[in-house]
Fold each of these.
Amino acid sequence: MHYDEFIGRVQNRARLGTSGEAVRATRATLEVLGQRLFGGEAKDLAAQLPREIAHYLTSDRGSESFGLQDFFRRVSEREQVELPDAIHHARAVISVVRDSVTEGELQDVLAQLPEEYNALFESGSEGEMQR
């Protein structure tokens, strides 16, 4: 998938008014996800995404453990939007990531995350997240 298509899908799924808002949501979500991944997994995931956004996964060097609610809080702070909006945007971004990478890579990412993150990766961008 190319950059414009990726951002367009995020904009559509998150119902954002501009591509700039979609870029902000994508950047915030992927930077926080990159903080959560260990041992080169962020680079492996980035390798399957458009290069213009892949660097968001690897821009923060440190890896940390934190839960899903903290993930959403961090996205909210980075994107500078209210928490409910950040949750919706992050779900949209992750759903586009799912469309963009191989199933094997997706499983590698999920293997590093606590089980509570499965709801984020499996729920898509619409409706209630399954817990």
Amino acid sequence: MTLPAFVFGSLLATLYGSLLHFWKGGTLTHLVVDLILAWLGFWGGHALATAEGWQWGMLGTLHLGAATLGSVLLLGIGYLLTMPANNHTN
């Protein structure tokens, strides 16, 4: 992994977390959680693809496809777990 690939991947993960936060809203704490989940999912997906030898979605030395998928999956799980419950009284 090269330094430019690490910086580019970190920027993409930050973009993914920021876009989700922009879409769903929330407090500064929610933004920090979204960013951490995006980074963990991104680099976890990259590490899994590296360990398994997957070659799809490569961008230089970065396993961009698997990293993006990992980030989206972890952000989705985090969103579902922190979603406020609907309290409808009928």
